[in-house]
Amino acid sequence: MDKFKNKRKRSPNTDASNSEHVGVPIKKKKKESKALVKGVPSESVEEDFPRSSTSLLTPLEIKQLHQKAKQDVTEEKTSKETKVKRMQMAPLKAVSKAKKMKHSHDIKFPSPKHLQEGLLLLGIVKEVRDYEVYVSLPFNLQGKITHAGVSDIITELIKQSSSEDTETSLPSLSHLFYCGQYIICSTLRKDGTFVEVTVNPSVINQRLTTRAVFKGMVLPGWVESVEEHGYLISFGIEGLKGFLRKKDSAQCIRQHFNGHTLRAGQVCQFLITSTLNLKALGVSIDPALVNTALVKSNDIHSFNAILPGAVVIVTVNELLSNAMTVKLLGGFEGIVHCRHLPGTSVDCSDFQTKSKAKARLLWVDRAEKLIGLSMKVPIVEGSHFKCDDLEMGTIVESAEITYQEGAHALLLNLSGTHSGYAPISAVYEDICEKFDKKHKVGSKHNCRVVSFNLVDCSVIVSLKQSVLNEPFISYKDIQPGDIVTGTVSSHGSFGMVVQVNRFIHGLCPTVHLADSKLKHPEKKWEKGSEVKCRVLSVDASKQQLLLTHKKKLVDSTYPILARYESAQPGGLHQGVVRMVNGRGCSVWFYGNVRGWADRSDLGQPGITDPTTVFQVGQVVTCQIVSCQPEEKKLQLSFEIGVTPVIKPLTSGDIVTLSVEAILPEGISLRSQEGEVAFLPRSHLSDELSSCEAILSAHQTRYESTLDKGKVYKLDDVLVVCGKLPTRHVLVTCKDSLIKEAKEKKIVQDFSQFKAGRVLSGFVRNSAQFGCFVEFPGNFVGLAPNKYLKDEFVSDGRGVYADGQSVRAKVVEMDREKQRLLVTLRPGDLTPQLKMEHSARSPAKEKNLPSAKSPEATGLVTAKVTKVNLKRGILMNIGPKRNGSIHVTDVNDDFSKCSLKHFKEGDFLRCIVLSKEDKYYVLSLRQSKVGVATGDTPPAAIVDPEVNDISEISEDSVIRGIVKDSTPQGIFVWLGRNLCGRIKFANLADRFVEKPMEVHETGDVVTVKVISIKEKKIELSARLSHIDPEAAKELYESKRKKKDSEDVDDMQKATDSDLEGDSGVESVHSVEEALLVDEEVVIQPKTSYLDVGRFDWNRSREKERESDEDISNGDDDNEAPQKQTKRSKRQKRSIQRLEEQKIYETEMSFLEADRLPETSDDYERLVTSHPNNSSVWIQYILYFLMSADVKKAKAIAERALTVTAFDMENERLNIWVVLLNLENLYGTEESLASVFKSALMQNNQEKLYWKMVMIYVKSGKHDKADSLYKTMIKKFKDNTKVWVGYCEFLMRGNNLEVARTILERSFKSLPKSQHIDIIVKFAEFEYKYGDASRGQTLFENVLTNYPKRLDVWSRYLDQLIKHSSVESIRIVFERAIQLKLSARKMKFFFKRYLEFERQHGTADTVGSVKNKAETFVKSDEVSIQ
Q: How far apart are alpha carbons 1309 and 643 in whole angstroms?
């Protein structure tokens, strides 16, 4: 490959550059050629005689030189002719070997091992799902596309769905792509067996410019918007757009998208048909044109303009062993791998150098400047690879190996026209690095078709014996009723996705997950769990597989009814209730077979409402009454005929049963009385590893017995459970259970269980919290995690296998609920071993750290001596060696650090971290213990260790464990030696009545570090501190919940209380109580509060006047007045006046319409009406009148604490008053703080509007502009916000900015609102801007929507206000010529007549009337 690069970089004037090195000028080529003709090289002349111009040779020497030059020329011509003849006669292979052809292994073709990010590949869509698209890529690569890799529009939708409260629905990928579609991909990363790729044109075209685009170029792009007559296309290139006409895309849409129009964000390959306008390129998506477009050499001028998928004419340059190099596009070099030659041949010698051929670009490596091409006929022609004679799962016998591609893959001859490709991973069961002699060229092997690569035009096969034996490879291999085993892939609202094998996946609908409805199925079957299902239906064409996990159906022995033709009257089948109503039930069997049972046939005499007895998803056994296969009708009955009496098999019986069938899951048996039993595979032996071999042996014996015409029987079979809903009996061949049955130790009744009794059983199933152990007689006990092993177990899954034989000891019993608690720990089963182990264990002594080296660490098994819920666990690890496990070292996840399940005497496997004083520091963290034991550590540590104060910082958010609750606060463990405190004020955002009872010892809390001073850590658990956005969302959710209440009725009730109690006339809206954009106007009853109008902007003057009054008052008091002595009569008069005043004051309190005059009056008023904002505002105004701003703010803050939280409008009024106060008298910081707090407790949109009005009326236009910008980002879907911002800018004479904002609004608002905002902006143009622009906007709207009567009305209103009479008449005349309904035309004539009566004459009025009469007559004629 270095040779190719050197050729590419070599200058065309190589000889000239060499001559320049020896002193000959480059420009003198003609002189140089003359010297060569004469036989004297110019280099020699210049070198031998650098300065002399005269020749020193004699004439004889010159003659000899001429003769020798002619002889050399003649010999050279002769050798060339001989060589050409030899090449024409000899085969090309011999010439290739003679030339010692260079191998192409040094060229790194795309492969899973040599795959770098940003590699451009040609792909063909192979499979489309709703959320994933699978693509065939060159060299057997498989690509996967998700929503994130489609286009910028889809990526923006993903961001919106993750950031907004409302879920944004993403379009299904099945609507954006179709199978067989040619696409250009860019590699991102490797995801398992797939390569995650992107088709985003912004990524693929990132190196392209507008100059690189030419007519006839195929360029990827996405639909930016859907217009009325076509689609606006974006290519991710700045300054370049395209327009696709709908009529040009109609054929492609009908063929591939079922007639549905293209969607915004959809990616396609576009053929450039016109480049006259770079902002609206003419494009086409016709596959016949796109896939066959030929790129010429003069179209490409740079390497970055080369994209995969282009069809070019190439010239063969050099033949290699397994590839050949070609020249293309006027000098660029490319390479064609032998697998991409035409046909099935891999021999490059079929081509001759300098021969021309057509090829398509497969891959482009921009980093290494490499181009790969394909000459496969289907790829070059843009068609699809077809292989009709081979299908998925087809086994090809004796396929011959024709080529061995190094140590990577094999090529096999499957038929005359198709070749198979088998990577080395599909040849051997184990990992191998090279092929053995068994798989040499010419050998024959059996193989199985597992896939197809549409780009390589090859059939992917596997030689593995396990694949050859696989029962299902394709969906066509599966039939309804088959039992399949798979793993859970994912969960969703639709159900559970099950991966049957690497080729097949199916869906188990929610109704089929279990016999009963489950609320959280994802907790029962986590991802990766193995499940056994039965196939309900399969659609091979759509690759859809429906499964059922209902135990009754999976274990059913009734015949499978998957075809109407198979139904026979009287037959018994099981199905699922699909629909139930008052007339009966619809039952779904398998496939598409449905049946109906009338209400009288439901087996419930006297039933009136079947919905009360049956429910959707219920498994029912029914009998076929009649069948009509042609009409696909089945009549069913739930009344089953008389069945023979079956003697039931009893638990604990040891019986002999006949084998009915041997299945992969076990053996189906039948008793002499005809009762069906089932022996699971795991019950063939106590050793699970031997069960598979035993089942195979039974299979062999069963088949040989059938051949002899005899019945194969099993002796000494123990009945484990004799009653199951499916009438199956569970039996076992486990020796441990049979031995206890023979010794009469089988428990027949729950009363026989006693604490301490040891019994044999088997693991029924496992869960995260423990294992369920079943005993004969259908008794089940639970063994929690702490009773599974002597070591600590965090997850019960995987400790024991399902069906494994175990010995269990009864710990506790609940006789009322018949529940058992058992232990499986060996230490509990063998006490003597436990004591010996706990006393001294030499093996463990070696792992103990030495007391002389406290830093030494090791893995030990220790015994629990004491559990302290506040600190941790005290342990004994040996003689005179004790340790402790801190509560934060119990688990890597604090939520699993509960100490309540630890008891004294438990043995725990832990690791020694260090030694402090006399105690060893121990840990149970899996991240520590797993490293020491060699186990896999957890993928992520939820709560990492924090052992020093330097490891945390202020404002960091971490989790901790509550130590204790005291009157000083709640103390939280953050680490082994770190404890922080949460003050009660920082416990929650709301007031907590009993803070010490909020958290208990051991609770896990998320806190934020507020301060760290002198090793004292102050914490906060307030949500507003930890996550302000989450706090806002929580408040918004509560606010929306309150919106459902009837606020108007509540307000009326409050108002009526006020009027009846104190005569206050409450104001029903914020605008009436406090107008932030004007003066504060309060209008109570005249006999109550006559405060009048208060101007916020004049309150400062009041403050200054009050200061002057105070100073004047001081001057007046400087001259003391003489006090005269009063007589007794005067004193009595004064006393009577004071008593009269007191009496009048007391009587005034009883008056309902009394005006408050003092702060005490207002205090009484707010106490009686704490939720009335108008009363609080009057109180605030009272102090503002006195210029006491500080007191006014205090009253406003107090009002917020007193007013009920659900009185949102009242609280909003008070917040607005407080914002006004801070705006006039506070600082910017204090205003921002109040505004931030207000946003958390109010409707944000309303508060933003109030705040922007405050800024506008106070003259702070810069602040208002900044706030408007925030609003159009935060509420970009609200038309009112955009209109308000535009009006604000137009009022401020920022006309161009307002017009830019109008254009921006179109990208955020839905199209249904575009007309409204355009019309509103047109009115602003009339009012604040250019009237001609407003008229243009109205005319454009009416041109496209001439029937919009509301737009006509608003247009006429503006014309009447701002235009001349003649121009208005022209518009009216145009309006009455429209062909609209009579009702709409009546509107125009009425408006026209009113206009002429005001501005016209009697003649013009008469003319309008005549035109109206003419229209009425013509309308009547048309109706007739």
A: 69
